[in-house]
Structure formats: C-alpha cells, structure tokens
Amino acid sequence: MTNIPFISKETDFMQELDNTIGKVEKLVGLLLQVKQLCDSDLGLSDAEIYLTAKDIAEQFGCDIKTARKYMERSDFPLIECGTKKVNRLAFLEYNLHQQLKE
After folding, report:
1. Which of 93, 26, 91 is nearest to 52 (CA)?
2. What CA–CA distances, in Å, run from 83 to 26, 50, 70, 74?
3. Which residues fall within 8 angstroms of residue 71, CB to CB, at 6 or more apart?
4. pTM over 0.70
5. Per mean pLDDT, which range of 57-66, 79-88, 92-101 is the poorest?
6. Strands of 50-51's sheet, edge to edge?
7. Which of 12, 29, 67, 98 gives a 20 to 30 Å CA spacing to 61?
8. Extended beta strands in the chain, E state
C-alpha cells in the first residue's frame, strides 16, 4: 500500500482541529459557569459557594486523594479554615487560566 502524504497531513490536521475544538468547548463551558455564578443572587449557601476535595474530585473525575494533591499546588486558590476549601468562582478562574496555558 502506498503512503499518500497529503491524506496523512489532512488526517493530522483534522485530529488537531478536533482537539482544538474540544479545548474551546471546555473553555466556553468554564466561562458559562463563571457567568452563571456572577449573575446569580448572593443568597447562595456555603455548600454552593465553596468546593471541597470531594467536589474537586467529581469535577475532574478522579479520586479524592488525587484531588487533594491538586489542591496542594502552590498556585491553587485554596482556603484553609478548619477544612480545605476553594471558592467556586476562584476555582473556575484558576481552571480557565490552566486551560489557556495548554
């Protein structure tokens, strides 16, 4: 079978395009969440404003141990007040910046 270079290049381009579209969709999702939080009323409960390691694990689809490691990063917007939590809006902003770095 003969290797046809332009088909290979087109396939690579389409895969890269699909990856880029996936990243843009993630960013749009994060921005929509930020907008939704900004537009919401201030009557949110603490459970809705602050995320725990369990919430972070659910967000990333990982176990709690991995989420805790992630939360220990020096640039992570962690709040330590008896328990370790993160403000939902700060978490979304942090993830947005991490996505933009990629």
Report:
1. 91
2. 29, 11, 15, 17
3. 53, 56, 78, 84, 86
4. no
5. 92-101
6. 50-51, 83-87, 78-81
7. 12
8. 50-51, 78-81, 83-87
Say if residue 13's pLDDT is above 70: yes
Report strand pairing: 78-81 vs 50-51. unpaired
Whether the pLDDT of residue 85 is over 70: the answer is: yes
For residue 66, the model assigns a pLDDT of 95
Residue 58 is encoded by which pair of tokens? 């659910």
- SS3 label, residue 7: helix
Mean pLDDT score of the chain, rounded to an integer?
A: 80
d(CA 78, CA 27): 21
